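seq as requested:
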Amino acid sequence: MKEIKVGFVTVSDRASRGEYEDLGGPAMQEWIGKALACEWQPVAKVIEDEQTLIEQTLKDLADKEQCDLILTTGGTGPAKRDVTPEATAMVCDKILDGFAEQMRAVSLQYVPTAILSRQIAGTRGASLIINLPGKPSAISECLEAVFPAVPYCIDLIEGAYLETDDNFVKAFRPKHAKKPN
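struct tokens:
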């Protein structure tokens, strides 16, 4: 069976320079650690808010590291340096609008400024890329909202088979979907 890899990208000028503690990256890893009931390897990066650097990092995680899932945090707002969605769109084969729609809908239940979020999701080869907010509580809320669809999406793009801890988050797969041998 293919080794499961999950990429975690924190996009932050200050965190990349060591001026600010990266809270988003560890929050994403902790959440995935609770969600997955299978063995997996993290590949974590903390990078600056530079579109070409974000694009190259996402390409490397998808193409070279062969991550099945790549989660980003940061750079999804309206500020001039927020370019994570643009970088993600540039490297994706397909954009999956439903992920972003669901994340914003859930976030709006907590804060009215969620409408300012521009996060997106898409695929690159056998990798699913999802942009998440920067705040750890918002990361959790968004992952909780969309993760039930993540394992089946990765099945459809021929990535690794992700098993979830049903006590934490239950993956949805149609009845006809079969676990690979």
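The mean pLDDT is 96.
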